[in-house]
Every structure is written in structure tokens, then in C-alpha cells.
């Protein structure tokens, strides 16, 4: 058995505890969670109870710096609120002890902060950093990626992703109710979909046009005298540098949907569709027409825990663990550049809604560069 890889989790709210449970399901692969950091006592308590039930002794810290200084772990999972990622990542990357990092999406809430993190990471070749864009691992999505990469659909021209779901959940101290904390809805949750569009299109974004608003949810909520400002529905169009087009259709007051995500990818010669959580993929060709469309059930036998994201967190950890074990041979599957571009696309979409016009990715990257240097 290989040496145990010791993990620390920074932020043990809903997602941090999800990581804890996933890592427990990987225990036979030689992993253990040995410490956590979270300032919120009820979150600490819930994580401690879980760890006790797993027979994992856990050292508890209230801040990430103490966790890093303790030297107890080799890998840190950053699952604290979005607006804390930047400082926590900079402190990890500047710490004398190397820690491999799995940081939850979005990498940071602004492009300028993402860039600083990317630059700081360049100086730490002793550390691997993976970004938690885990939708890539959902079995029907992974199957569709495999089909697209296999080339049977031809050159991809159109990628449409519809997410119709329930409203944002309540979070610790309601951090997710304000753009300043999340980066905005199109950064916070839609970075997942922008990441997938880049993968399917096999290209980088050039410009973005969006329309959206907070039309239904959160209007009657007030926190410290302020009404939330996060949009709950949007249409976003993205043009890619190889001529492909993407479209996102987001609705967060659509509990009455059979699927939460419906993804359609059309190439010159065929079309593929993925449905989550039905876990089904359709694939067809122009030559064979409707009668030739195949329906495939997407499954991944490696998944030992489905959790909140259809097994994708489990596969994400499995993948990152193998990158850690094969360090020097294997780069993280989802790297900092993927994290940065997915945030830039979300920021461009948020700015487009504000300004009512197309926003180029270059504009977002340049503008945020000059903000960072001023
Ligand atoms: N991959 C996914 O699909 C997915 C799903 C949900 C959330 N997330 C991401 O996970 C992160 C956490 O979200 P959540 O839903 O668990 O929120 P949450 O509010 O349930 O938990 C956040 C926890 O972080 C703690 N925290 C706050 N500031 C901290 C700090 N400076 N250091 C350490 N801990 C701190 C809070 O006390 C809380 O316990 C966010 O970045 C979110 O975007 C990802």
C-alpha cells in the first residue's frame, strides 16, 4: 500500500463535508482527512461528528493559516466561500511547506485575483493545483465529452447548455446572496458550464452577450438591511475562436424540470445530448436521422459514493489523487488556466448584462489586468 496521503479541508460547510465523505469513500486508496479549518463552530461540529463516525481523529482549527502552519497535511481542499478563495490560495502558495490544492469553483471572484493566483502558482512547481470544475466528471457529461473527442460528430459548431433548477440554497451567513461574495451568478455556478463549453468546442471564447435579471427569487429577503442582488435567470451567447457558438439558458425557479442539466452538442455530421440526473446520452448522425438516434445509459463503475453531484466529486478526488501520486508525470486534469477562463467568461456575461452589449474576453482580461496593477 502506498503511503497515506493526508488531507486538510478549509471550509467545512455543505461542500467541505461533501469532500470529507468522498475522501472517506477513498480510504482504501490510502487517504485520510487529518485536519479542518473553519471559523464557524456549528460547521466544525458537524464535520467532527462525521469524522468520529469514520474513526478519523481530526485536528480542528478556526483559520487556514494555523492549519497550514501545523504541517499536518500534504493536500488541502479549499471549500470556503468564493470571496475567501483568493487570500487562502495566496497564503497556501506562499507557505514554505508545499501543499497540493483542490480549490472549489469558482477559482476566485474576479479575473484580477485569478491572475494573481496563476502567477503565484508558477513559482511553486512543487505544488499541484486543481480547480473543482467537477461537472466534467458526471457520467453522462463525461460520456458526451468522449463522443465529441472521438470525432464522430465532426467539427463542433453549437453547444447549448440548459440549467433549469431550484433556487440557491441557504448558506452559512448567507454569503451567496450577494455578487460581491460570489462573483455573480454567472461566475459562481455557471463557470461549470462555461468550462464544459470550452471542452466541447475545443476552443477559447472571444466574446459574450447576455441578458438576465433577478426576477423571481430572493426579492423578499433582507440581510443587514440589503436585498440580494444575484440574478436568477439568464440567456448567454458565447462565440469561440474556431467559429463555434455556445448558449447557456439558466433558470433558477424551475423546480418542475425532469432534468437539471440538458446539454446539446452539434457538429457538422452529428449531434449528442446529455441529461442530468437522468444519466442518459443520445447520439445521432445526419446520415441516419431520427431513427438512428441511440440512447446510452451513462454509468461509471468506479463511483463508490454518488453524493450531491452524481458521483462527480468522487471521480474528481480519484483523479486528483492519481495526479498527486504520479506527480511530475501527470498534470491536474482541470488546471488554473481552466479556472481563470471559466471565471473570465462569467465576468464577461455579468458585464454584458450590465452594459447591454457584447463584451470581449480580451476586454475583461485587459481591464482586470489594469485594475490589478493600479
Ligand atoms: N462543485 C460544486 O458543484 C459546488 C457545489 C456547492 C458549493 N461549491 C463551492 O464550495 C464552496 C463552499 O460552498 P458551500 O456550499 O459549502 O458553502 P457553506 O456556506 O455551506 O460553507 C462554507 C463554510 O466555509 C466557512 N468559512 C467561511 N470563511 C472561511 C474562511 N476564511 N476559512 C475557512 N472556512 C471559512 C463557513 O463558516 C462555512 O462553514 C464555495 O466556493 C462554493 O462555490 C461547489
Automatic annotation (TrEMBL):
Phylogenetic lineage: Eukaryota, Viridiplantae, Streptophyta, Embryophyta, Tracheophyta
SUPFAM superfamilies: NAD(P)-binding Rossmann-fold domains
Protein name according to UniProt: Gfo/Idh/MocA-like oxidoreductase N-terminal domain-containing protein
Organism: Corchorus olitorius
Domain Gfo/Idh/MocA-like oxidoreductase N-terminal: 6-132
Top-level taxon of origin: Eukaryota
Cited Pfam families: GFO_IDH_MocA, GFO_IDH_MocA_C
Gene3D superfamilies, alphabetized: Dihydrodipicolinate Reductase, domain 2 (3.30.360.10), NAD(P)-binding Rossmann-like Domain (3.40.50.720)
GO molecular function annotations of the record: nucleotide binding
Occurrences of domain Gfo/Idh/MocA-like oxidoreductase C-terminal (ranges): 146-360
Amino acid at each position: 500500500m502506498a503511503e497515506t496521503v493526508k488531507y486538510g479541508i478549509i471550509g467545512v460547510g455543505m461542500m467541505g463535508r461533501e469532500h470529507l465523505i468522498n475522501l472517506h469513500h477513498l480510504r482504501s486508496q490510502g487517504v485520510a482527512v487529518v485536519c479542518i479549518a473553519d471559523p464557524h463552530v456549528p460547521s466544525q461540529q458537524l464535520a467532527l461528528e462525521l469524522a468520529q463516525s469514520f474513526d478519523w481523529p481530526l485536528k480542528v482549527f478556526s483559520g487556514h493559516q494555523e492549519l497550514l502552519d501545523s504541517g499536518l497535511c500534504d493536500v488541502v481542499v479549499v471549500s470556503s466561500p468564493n470571496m475567501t478563495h483568493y487570500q487562502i490560495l495566496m497564503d497556501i502558495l506562499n507557505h514554505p511547506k508545499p501543499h497540493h490544492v483542490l480549490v472549489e469553483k469558482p477559482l476566485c471572484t474576479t479575473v484580477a485575483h485569478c491572475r494573481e493566483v496563476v502567477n503565484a502558482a508558477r513559482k511553486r512547481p512543487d505544488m499541484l493545483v486543481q480547480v473543482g470544475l467537477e461537472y466534467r466528471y458526471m457520467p453522462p457529461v463525461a460520456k458526451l465529452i468522449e463522443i465529441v473527442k472521438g470525432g464522430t460528430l465532426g467539427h463542433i459548431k453549437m453547444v447549448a447548455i440548459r440549467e433549469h433548477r431550484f433556487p440557491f440554497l441557504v448558506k452559512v451567513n448567507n454569503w451567496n446572496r450577494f455578487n460581491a461574495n460570489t462573483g455573480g451568478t454567472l461566475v459562481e455556478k455557471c463557470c461549470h458550464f462555461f468550462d464544459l463549453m470550452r471542452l466541447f468546442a475545443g476552443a477559447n471564447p472571444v466574446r459574450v452577450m447576455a441578458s438576465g435579471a433577478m426576477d423571481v427569487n430572493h426579492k423578499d429577503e433582507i440581510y443587514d438591511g440589503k436585498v440580494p442582488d444575484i440574478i436568477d435567470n439568464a440567456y448567454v451567447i458565447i462565440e469561440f475562436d474556431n467559429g463555434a457558438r455556445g448558449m447557456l439558458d439558466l433558470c433558477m425557479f424551475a423546480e418542475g424540470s425532469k432534468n437539471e442539466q440538458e446539454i446539446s452538442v452539434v457538429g457538422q455530421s452529428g449531434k449528442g445530448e446529455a441529461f442530468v440526473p437522468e444519466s442518459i446520452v443520445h447520439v445521432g448522425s445526419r446520415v441516419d436521422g431520427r431513427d438512428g438516434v441511440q440512447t446510452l445509459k451513462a454509468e461509471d463503475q468506479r463511483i463508490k459514493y454518488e453524493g450531491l453531484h452524481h458521483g462527480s466529486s468522487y471521480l474528481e478526488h480519484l483523479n486528483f489523487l492519481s495526479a498527486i501520486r504520479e506527480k511530475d508525470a501527470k498534470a491536474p486534469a482541470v488546471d488554473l488556466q481552466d479556472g481563470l477562463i471559466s471565471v473570465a467568461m462569467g465576468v464577461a456575461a455579468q458585464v454584458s448584462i450590465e452594459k447591454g452589449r457584447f463584451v470581449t474576453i480580451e476586454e475583461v482580461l485587459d481591464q482586470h489586468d489594469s485594475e490589478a496593477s493600479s
